[in-house]
């Protein structure tokens, strides 16, 4: 059971909730803060004071005063009108993560929302009533309005949800769990949809996969090094300490550990003086990606525990401020950075694959690892496929955060496009896994040719694990099936790994 307090939520805890299926509970002290901020909203209504989103319209309508008897209808109209997401829905894990993150943010006690609404968010998470949330339609400022409105629809028993893998009307899902949906009151609809939880949820799950992929890329690169009889001197501790980046040094340490005991790797001057960059610069390039991951982790965990709606209530209602914490620029930058860092892991991996299959570069291995060069093409087109994905990543890596389109009659005249950045980051992470799977396949085949008995003990274990799902290459076959199997194995290992860990692995 994970206790949510409005602070202290980490990627490790989030993974336990979403992947490990831990349930959540609400901290009583946090709930007391929630009740105090709700009391402030009630006083504003009773006193007839004007406050944005409580008794005014929204966006360009912020100057329109709403009568007290219409405040409940105002919230209902808000949710229905803003639930205009488009495109394919987010996967269920993203939608559940959105609910967890919104609950945690509201528990900070600055939003003026009733405890019952937070209890329903908790029930949504624990009972696994998952909102169907279209993935397109957010500008990433004023919050992720459209996606979060679809989440809020389910809270009030409207829209669509998934329960036990079956899509159904939200009201039916609540009924099956014996729980009544909520009726929103003043401020509550706005509190639910003013936030960055769609981009942050999508980005957080992409990050969790990316972090594990960065680790997996190292043993895959190590296997390639053995297949190419790479020079281990490039990983000498002094080289990396001389530069000073801790992430680079940590990659070099792990590479030395993976290759320890190998009878396939070489030393300077034995076969050649130095390797190509895609081999020699593994610590420098992979280490730089770990620097990106460290940055992204920090920004995501800040956002997990941030109050991101508007207006915010302070001093037990004495201070109510309309601000802009819903603006997704910090997350947008982080997601664009993640896109670039992960794209480079695929780029350097594809270059190593080229060296494994190119007879001019692969140190005597058969052309394209073919069992009968000419009659059989071997892994020739696998490199094509990897190159295609690397090229696609270059397009997806274009920063979304440099774009902005004004909205709400120019009241909301600068937006982050952070959700687009996060969606593209998730696509890139999936693409990187496919490129690494191609490298792993080729390195697996090449090491079988070199002599798997000469591999390092650590990498031989990885080779044996791969041999359980793919056979050595003795005849051309449908290689997409092999790549899909490796890809699934990498994903399964990533989901299991680090479930009880709260720290990064870059340094």
From TrEMBL:
Subcellular location: Cytoplasm
EC number: 4.3.1.3
Mod. after translation: Contains an active site 4-methylidene-imidazol-5-one (MIO), which is formed autocatalytically by cyclization and dehydration of residues Ala-Ser-Gly.
Modification type 2,3-didehydroalanine (Ser): residues: 142
Keyword annotations from UniProtKB, A to Z: Cytoplasm, Histidine metabolism, Lyase
GO BP field: L-histidine catabolic process to glutamate and formamide; L-histidine catabolic process to glutamate and formate
UniProt catalytic activity: L-histidine = trans-urocanate + NH4(+)
GO MF annotation terms: histidine ammonia-lyase activity
Pathway in which this enzyme or protein is active: Amino-acid degradation; L-histidine degradation into L-glutamate; N-formimidoyl-L-glutamate from L-histidine: step 1/3
Protein name from the UniProt record: Histidine ammonia-lyase
Residue location of crosslink 5-imidazolinone (Ala-Gly): 141-143
């Amino acid at each position: 059971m994970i206790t949510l307090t409005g602070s202290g939520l980490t990627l490790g805890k989030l993974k336990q909730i979403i992947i490990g299926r831990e349930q959540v509970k609400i901290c009583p002290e946090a709930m007391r803060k929630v009740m105090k901020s709700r009391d402030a909203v009630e006083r504003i209504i009773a006193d007839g004071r004007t406050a944005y989103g409580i008794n005014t319209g929204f966006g360009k309508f912020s100057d329109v005063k709403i009568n007290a008897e219409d405040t409940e209808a105002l919230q209902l109209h808000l949710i229905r009108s803003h639930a205009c997401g488009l495109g394919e829905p987010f996967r269920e894990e993203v939608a559940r993560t959105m609910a967890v993150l919104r609950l945690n943010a509201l528990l900070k006690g600055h939003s003026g929302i009733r405890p019952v609404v937070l209890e329903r968010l908790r029930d949504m998470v624990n009972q696994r009533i998952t909102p169907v949330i279209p993935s397109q339609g957010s500008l990433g400022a004023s919050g992720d309005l459209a996606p979060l409105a679809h989440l809020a629809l389910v809270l009030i028993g409207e829209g669509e949800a998934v329960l036990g893998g079956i899509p159904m009307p939200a009201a039916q899902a609540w009924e099956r769990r014996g729980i009544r949906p909520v009726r929103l009151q003043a401020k509550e609809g706005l509190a639910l949809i003013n936030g960055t939880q769609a981009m942050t949820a999508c980005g957080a799950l992409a990050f969790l996969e990316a972090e594990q992929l960065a680790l997996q890329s190292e043993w895959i690169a190590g296997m390639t090094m053995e297949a190419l009889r790479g020079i281990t001197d490039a990983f000498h501790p002094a080289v990396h300490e001389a530069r000073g980046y801790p992430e680079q040094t940590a990659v070099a340490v792990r590479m030395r550990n993976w290759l320890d005991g190998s009878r396939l790797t070489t030393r300077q001057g034995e076969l050649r003086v130095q390797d190509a960059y895609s081999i020699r610069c593994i610590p420098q390039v992979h280490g730089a990606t770990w620097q990106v991951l460290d940055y992204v982790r920090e920004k995501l965990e800040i956002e997990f525990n941030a109050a991101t709606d508007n207006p915010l209530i302070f001093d037990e209602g004495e201070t109510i401020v309309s601000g802009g914490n819903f603006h997704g620029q910090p997350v947008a930058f982080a997601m664009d950075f993640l896109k670039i860092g992960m794209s480079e892991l695929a780029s350097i991996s594809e270059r190593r694959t080229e060296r494994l299959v190119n007879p001019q570069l692969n140190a005597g291995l058969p052309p394209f690892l073919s069992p009968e060069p000419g009659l059989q093409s071997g892994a020739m087109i696998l490199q094509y496929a990897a190159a295609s994905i690397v090229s696609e990543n270059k397009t997806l890596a274009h920063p979304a955060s440099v774009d902005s389109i004004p909205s709400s009659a120019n009241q909301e005249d600068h937006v982050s496009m952070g959700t687009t950045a996060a969606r593209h980051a998730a696509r890139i992470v999936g693409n990187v896994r496919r490129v690494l799977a191609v490298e792993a396949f080729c390195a697996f085949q090449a090491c079988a040719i070199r002599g798997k008995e000469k591999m390092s003990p650590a990498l031989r274990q990885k080779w044996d694990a791969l041999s359980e799902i793919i056979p050595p290459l003795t005849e051309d076959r449908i290689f997409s099936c092999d790549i899909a199997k490796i890809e699934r194995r990498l994903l399964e290992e990533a989901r299991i790994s680090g479930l009880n860990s709260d720290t990064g692995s870059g340094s």
